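User: Hey, quick favor. My workstation is busy. Could you predict this chain's structure for me?
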Amino acid sequence: MHALERHWQRWDGVTLALYPLSLLYCALARLNRIRLEAGARHRPRLPVRAVLVVGNLTVGGTGKTPMVIWLCRWLQEHGYRPGVVSRGYGGRARGGPRAVTPQSDPAQVGDEPVLIATRSGCPVYVDRDRRRAARALLAQHPCDVLIADDGLQHYALGRDLEMVMVDGARRFGNGLCLPAGPLREPLGRLQEVDFRVATGTPGPGEYAMELTGSTALAVGDPGHTRPLQAFRGQRVHALAGIGHPPRFFDMLRRRGLEVVPHGFPDHHAFTAGEIRFGDDLPVLMTEKDAVKCRQIAGPEHWFVPVSAVPDPALGKAILGAVQAVDRIHSTR
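Assistant: No problem, here it is.
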């Protein structure tokens, strides 16, 4: 996959060879959407004010998890009771919906749901069938807004609002669907969503979002903290098993750290040997990776939580959209 990603940013011989498969992928994705949406229209609406889906059009990290956490907090600050459903990528749990808490095992329910539950304080449920997860969540918690994490292509779950996250640097690559390009759906899908949010430099019609982090926490004892600035000028190992590891490495470099990068696939299950490097240098990792390394970390391991800071106009637009959806459904 990493070798293929290099071709997704351009047109070349590999792109042309894979182009017929890309057309087939787009056609199958369209047929699957039609089938699932038809089924969703015949199901009762979930008993909430609004269902908001956060997802992306491309493969790889775009800042979805920090955005979901920000949305939870923003809605809570304005009197709503949000809950989150997710597939739980990377988790091995099967057999129906499962509640996720900060103490849950990421190997069972996925790393991102554990992180969301830890940072947001909202109820979080995982299931391959997100609608089933939603019903289980609402049976146990009085939530009035449902947020679907990485659910843009999960059309079995009806939705009122859609948000697409965009990598402001990589954008949409060569504009082709898998496997010739990075797209899960054709670019025309962007015209149907309610909000487009870009990490980094936004394009036309997009809201900007920054990811900020200024403190390092000990993986084994999060109560022990150090300002990230305290590592300035130091050589450190930087470890990231996320959708786009260079984003984490670049953030540390901008803070003045001398980074030795170690990138891993998204949702990677780390072993003790993979996070130790035989020297006395500090090891900094993402918060998503830290939830999987609690039991194997040493005193040299730190994680850097990041928070989403979107354009203030986005928050106002979301509140207005949720209120509008609620009014429409309350008059039916």
